[in-house]
Design a protein that fits this description.
two-stranded parallel ribbon, seven-stranded parallel sheet, alpha/beta, 37% helix
Length: 310
């Protein structure tokens, strides 16, 4: 199988291309390749080619995809800075990347009859209630610019293609790049007390585990909408932070056992420019129904991640 992966400089693209190579597939990656670090054990990846591709340039996208002629494009590249997306000067840029860029890739995939996997988010919903969002739910109501542009990307893919996977994820963390886990660990080095919101509920997603699922999808023809986070139930950011510090201390970094974590509401915490969903629960049962292996428990995922980064 030939695969093109966008966003290889990011957390997910990095792990996806590693997993594809491990499985023996021919790969090409686009994105900030200077940030691409190879395998998790530090060794270089030798069966990956890199290409400079501005996804907002329709002609460039068409040229690269037509020339390489992949069997699947796994589209991990996106504008993900949620608060920065709200700034007036950035709105057009966010739209260009998340909407136009996605549409350009979908059009090129259609021309060569290629599968496409598009990574989306629970932010396409309104984040209210306490029931898990279903993957085939069409009751969209994004709360912010990021969510709106990711939804428009979804609609572009679903309207242009038949061979597509739209995979919504949430609370992502991985070894290559910044994320909530790294942020909490770093802040705790200079603060004895942390305030963390306890009224936003979801489940973490470890990119290493997610990459395996995406490759399983790429090797299949079970197209459609899916939700994918790690298993283990629904928690708050406060719960997640407590477990991060507990496991870090258990791994020998005892200084984290001395950190006080205080639960606060989103309103009490303030600061965010973009509205955040209170309900990020995603129903993942469709994965099992269609024969895919669910991601492991998030506590196990966190343990493996901390072993890598501490």
């Amino acid at each position: 199988m030939k695969a093109l992966v966008t966003g290889v400089g990011g957390q997910l693209g990095h792990d996806v291309i590693n997993e594809l190579v491990k499985r023996g597939h021919e790969c090409i990656g686009s994105g900030l390749t200077s940030e691409y670090n190879g395998n998790q054990d530090g060794t270089a990846v030798t069966r990956v080619s890199y290409v400079s591709m501005d996804i907002t340039d329709e002609a460039a996208v068409k040229h690269v995809i037509t020339e390489f002629s992949p069997d699947v494009v796994i589209h991990c590249a996106a504008w993900t800075a949620v608060d920065l997306a709200e700034e007036k000067d950035n709105i057009a840029k966010v739209h260009a990347v998340n909407v136009c860029g996605t549409e350009n890739i979908a059009r090129a995939c259609r021309e060569i009859d290629c599968k496409m996997i598009y990574l989306s988010t629970d932010y396409v919903f309104n984040g209210q209630g306490n029931l898990p969002w279903q993957p085939d739910c069409k009751n969209y109501h994004p709360l912010n610019v990021y969510g709106q542009t990711k939804l428009e990307g979804e609609l572009a893919v679903s309207s242009l293609l038949e061979k597509y996977f739209i995979v919504r994820i949430a609370w992502v963390f991985g070894t290559n790049g910044s994320n909530f886990v790294k942020t909490m660990l770093n802040i705790a080095k200079t603060h004895n007390t942390l305030r963390v919101v306890n009224d936003q509920i979801g489940t973490p997603t470890y990119t290493f585990d997610l990459a395996s699922l995406l490759c399983d999808m790429a090797e299949s023809d079970k197209y459609g909408y899916y939700h994918a986070t790690n298993e283990g139930g629904y928690i708050s950011w406060y719960d997640f932070t407590k477990e991060i510090f507990r496991q870090a201390a258990e791994l020998g970094h005892t200084e984290y056992s001395e950190i006080t974590v205080l639960p606060v509401t989103t309103a009490e915490y303030g600061l965010s420019k973009a509205a955040r969903p209170f309900n990020s629960r995603l129903d993942k049962s469709k994965l099992i129904t269609n024969g895919f292996t669910p991601l492991p428990d998030w506590r196990d995922a966190l343990h493996r991640y901390l072993q890598q980064c501490l």
